[in-house]
Amino acid sequence: MPYSAKCARQSVPGRYTKNFPGVPGDVYYVVGVMKNEQSMIFRQHHSFPDGLRDMIPEYPAAAAVTMAIRPLLHPLFQALPDGISEFTFANIYLFRAAHNYLLSRLSDGRIVILGNDHGHPFFMSPFGLPEKPLLDLLMTNHGRMKCVAASQKEFLEAMGFVVTEDRDNFDYLYLRRELAELTGRKFQKKRNLIKGFLNNFNWEGRPLLPELLGDAIGILEAWRNEHDSAGDYAAAREALEKSEELQLCGGIYYVDGQPAAFTLGEELACGTSFVIHFEKALNRYKGIYQFINQAFAGILGESYTTINREQDLGEEGLRHAKLSYRPSGFVEKFSATLPHSAYK
Known about the structure:
alpha+beta
């Protein structure tokens, strides 16, 4: 059966399904069925279908991130075990403008991601490390390697590169069961807020199916009007509009019959984790963020042991909020540079 991570109507629950609270029993929230057995894998020598070879030119030439490249890259990202939230096709595609992402193919066939943040170039190598001469070339031309996995750290240090912890971009990991149950004194404040929400409002949760995307976009527009900064508005809007093509899935929540919140994400780390890319709610409903956090964790399939809620970007308020949910761990990330590089 082709891989799908979409909310869908099923007469029989699939492998990773659960009933979505508040909807009829024949509607299931589908968060992953068996992957297509013919999915492409990153084979020896990093080969990929000849029909797609010309879509990603050889370095230093580079190509834009387009939906046409998704059939190549999505299976490769899906097979990555480290669980870095940036390394999904959806994330690279949706934030392609924010980080000026481009794709290039090294002489060994490996695909790298080039980028530029506010005039500072960088590269990422999600599909393994190139040999040192290629790494030297990339470091010289792009300054630093971002999103270095913990599994790559020692190898880069052994090759003489300077590897620095990137704490602001650590992904926060939570046990799915713990977020769904919120037991113990450490979650007492969360439970109180959820109880207040449930006592004050009538709610309904539904899988975020195509016919409800208009309501989700309405929530996003209202959320934008409540905030001075656009934040990730543009990426979130495109994620909703292209959720079918990107195979994102999520839930939408109504309060007193009105659209009030949505969550959107996808599976990660070879299907053992679920990453929340976007979560938006209207502030007029006190306790709604705590409620949807718990409610969504409660309907995720048990095959997902953890929920990845991405990074805090060094924002003090966001860090405090993420730490208040007592993460079970982090997906650590590092940056690597040449010795004596200007990058810090």
